[in-house]
């Protein structure tokens, strides 16, 4: 199979950074990719990513005031690149090197911005190529390098913090987003954000162990040699489903929170209960059994580092743990709970929760000050940082922690239109009882950043069957009918799923919802009945970004094989079904291409005679394929069609063409 094109490094702006005195070993702490971090000034400043604003904000930790909002452009220089530039940078994580420079990974522009701490402006931009999609960045505490993960080229890159030159690279495979490194800089942990498909996940009997099982994955890497030492699997929970615990597969893995002594780590994530479903085990998915927030514990001091499954903590009444960090003394772990607008404080020794505290919308980053007395949480959709005085933890008095104060992170005008911002707030939220019962399920629980979660769910209790989560980016709301079966005709039809699956009371007034058949998908339109529901729909409809394919030539042109596949795509009749703007169907026509099975179920409780042709742009990023995830590769998905036959050479070329589709073709 074709491999992604490697990142090509171009340095713009200030080429060389200052040398820094070695950070004393006694002061070194583990580091992890994060959206918020304290620097080492006195008093320390706090640096926080504004992903929707294309900026980084700097706050004074003592006065808790905003000092500056920094736009991510190279000061005084035009930013040119060999490829068509992205419309925005899309910053995701940051790291601070030993000289105090702030390195920012920009997913959408395929670049690293380096901010000078004295001038608080971008001094350098490292262009990697728009299709590389850098995501996680972490600085080695001993000053040996800056490590970056890329989603597109699927690499781990090491940069020299002074010369900014690339030192090492290694292949990671797909979906490694977050990184963490031990205090002695001798071990690096890379979290695979989306867990690979389980054996049998495309069937009614997914296997949770045995041959072919991988589970959640944390890669243990030797940073000195950029080599993989071990892949640490996270097991599937087989605990009984109850109101306070559940079964499931760890997914959406965040950066590891490594203990100061390097002997243990906690991995924040959600847990997907794919064992459950009306057809799989006779129990319908419900509001508290589908996704649950968990934190998994790793034993790093063992001869063979591994998970301690018995120490996995199931965070009740929350759907996703997105970030975690230790206190400097190693006694407590603070966890950001994205859907429920909270943080959880765990006793690191017992692995149990000792305090739950409210923050604001969409907490995705969490940091603790070097002296361990203050915690700062980045609330992405509130555009704020919440501050807690946590000095009481030194005396083991978590109940003495007072409610948070909050400071805004923006000085510039809000870039998102008001309706879209409101829709995105709702998309990420489960605290609002209209959206979810008991703070579990948000839209983002299965569609992080608008993409899919890689899972195949049993939706039989909702009148469907086995369905792989679709990506909304570039596809959501663009067709006359939505989903694999075309069972919705407007995004507002998710009102039914909010009520039936998420357990929410609904965004529409109950009288409007039940009037004239409006409660039924494909019934009386729901648009115009709720400002918030319309805002949610507007946000989903605005998700127009396709993931740029990393499989093209370095100049972004199609390879020779893909060009041959482009001709085959037309001559073999693929455009009969895949013909609209996203190279999918209109949603009105269902096609039976030979992939329907008994487990495919129904459509709204009626006979399922075919499926809607999915959009193929960014197909390289949305494996596994077909409605039930039964094709691991594009080649297998093409071969599953009973509508055509191909030679081996034709199959290879056609797959190459589809693999190279994206936002440029």
Characterize the structure shown:
The protein has 665 residues and is mainly beta. Among the domains are: 186 residues, 7 Propeller (Methylamine Dehydrogenase, Chain H); 122 residues, Cytochrome Bc1 Complex, Chain D, domain 2 (Orthogonal Bundle); 100 residues, Cytochrome c-like domain (Cytochrome Bc1 Complex, Chain D, domain 2). Helices cover 9% and strands 28% of the residues. The chain is built from seven helices and 38 strands. The strands form ten sheets. Strands 19, 20, 21, 22, 23 and 24 form a six-stranded antiparallel β-sheet that branches. The chain has a five-stranded antiparallel β-sheet with strand order 1-10-9-8-7, with no helix packed on it. A hairpin with a 2-residue loop joins strand 36 and strand 37. Helix 1 packs across helix 4 and helix 5 crosses helix 7. It is globular and about 65 Å long. It starts with 9 loop residues before the first strand and ends in a 6-residue tail after the last helix. About 2% of the residues have low confidence.
CATH superfamily of the domain at 1-186: YVTN repeat-like/Quinoprotein amine dehydrogenase
Could you tell me the strand content as a percent range? 25-35%
How would you state the average pLDDT, rounded?
93
Q: Let me know the largest β-sheet.
A: 6 strands, antiparallel
- Examine the secondary-structure arrangement and name the CATH architecture of the domain at 1-186: 7 Propeller
């Amino acid at each position: 199979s074709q491999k992604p094109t490697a990142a090509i490094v171009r340095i713009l702006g200030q080429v060389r950074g200052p040398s820094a005195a070695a950070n004393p070993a006694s002061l070194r702490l583990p580091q992890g990719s994060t959206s918020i971090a304290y620097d080492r000034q006195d008093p320390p400043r706090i640096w926080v990513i504004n992903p929707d604003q294309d900026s980084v904000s700097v706050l004074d930790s003592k006065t808790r005031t905003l000092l500056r909002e920094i736009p991510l452009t190279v000061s005084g220089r035009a930013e040119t690149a060999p490829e068509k530039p992205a419309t925005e940078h899309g910053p995701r994580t940051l790291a601070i090197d030993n000289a105090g420079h702030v390195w920012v990974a920009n997913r959408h522009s395929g670049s690293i911005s380096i901010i000078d701490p004295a001038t608080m402006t971008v001094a350098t931009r490292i262009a990697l190529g728009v299709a590389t999609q850098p995501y996680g960045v972490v600085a080695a505490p001993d000053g040996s390098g800056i490590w970056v993960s890329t989603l597109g080229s699927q690499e781990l890159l090491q940069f020299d913090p002074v010369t900014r030159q690339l030192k090492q690279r290694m292949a990671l495979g797909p979906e490694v987003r977050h990184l963490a490194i031990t205090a002695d800089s001798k071990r690096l942990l890379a979290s695979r954000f989306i867990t690979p498909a389980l054996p049998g996940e495309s069937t009614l009997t997914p296997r949770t162990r045995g041959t072919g099982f991988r589970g959640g994955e944390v890669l243990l890497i030797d940073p000195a040699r950029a080599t993989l030492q071990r892949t640490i699997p996270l097991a599937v929970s087989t605990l009984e489903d109850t109101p306070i615990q559940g079964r499931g597969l760890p997914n959406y893995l965040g950066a590891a929170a490594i203990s100061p002594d390097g002997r243990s780590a906690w991995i924040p994530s959600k847990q997907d209960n794919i064992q459950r479903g009306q057809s799989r085990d006779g129990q319908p998915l419900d509001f508290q059994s589908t996704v649950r927030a968990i934190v998994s514990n790793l034993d790093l001091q063992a001869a063979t580092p591994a998970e301690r499954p018995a120490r996995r903590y199931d965070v009740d009444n929350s759907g996703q743990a997105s970030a975690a960090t230790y206190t400097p003394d190693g006694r407590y772990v603070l966890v950001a709970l994205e859907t429920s607008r909270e943080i959880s404080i765990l006793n690191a020794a017992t692995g149990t929760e000792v305090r739950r505290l409210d923050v604001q919308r969409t907490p995705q980053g969490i940091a603790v000050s070097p002296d361990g007395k203050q915690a700062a949480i980045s609330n992405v959709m509130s555009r704020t940082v919440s501050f807690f005085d946590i000095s009481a933890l030194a005396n083991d008095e978590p109940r003495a922690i007072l409610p948070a104060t909050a400071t805004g992170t923006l000085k510039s005008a809000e870039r998102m239109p008001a309706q879209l911002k409101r829709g995105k707030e709702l998309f990420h939220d489960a605290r609002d009882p209209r959206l979810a019962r008991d703070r579990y399920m948000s839209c983002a629980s299965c569609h992080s950043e608008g993409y899919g979660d890689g899972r195949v769910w049993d939706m039989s209790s909702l009148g469907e069957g086995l369905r792989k989560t679709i990506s909304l980016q570039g596809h959501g709301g663009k067709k006359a009918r939505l989903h694999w079966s075309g069972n919705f005709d407007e995004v507002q039809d998710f009102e039914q799923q909010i009520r039936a699956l998420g357990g929410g009371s609904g965004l529409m007034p109950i009288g409007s919802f039940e009037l004239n058949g409006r409660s039924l998908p494909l019934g009386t339109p729901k648009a115009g009945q709720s400002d918030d529901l319309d805002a949610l729909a507007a946000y989903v409809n605005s998700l127009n970004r396709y993931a740029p394919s990393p499989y093209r030539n370095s100049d972004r042109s199609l390879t020779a094989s893909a060009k041959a596949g482009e001709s085959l795509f037309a001559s073999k009749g693929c455009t009969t079904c895949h013909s609209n703007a996203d190279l999918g169907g209109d949603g009105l026509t269902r096609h039976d291409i030979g992939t329907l099975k008994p487990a495919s179920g129904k459509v709204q409780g009626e006979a399922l005679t075919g499926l809607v042709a999915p959009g193929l742009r960014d197909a390289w990023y949305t494996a596994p394929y077909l409605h039930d995830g039964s094709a691991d590769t594009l080649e297998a998905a093409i071969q599953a069609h009973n509508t055509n036959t191909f030679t081996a050479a034709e199959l290879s070329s056609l797959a190459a063409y589809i693999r190279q589709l994206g936002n440029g073709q």
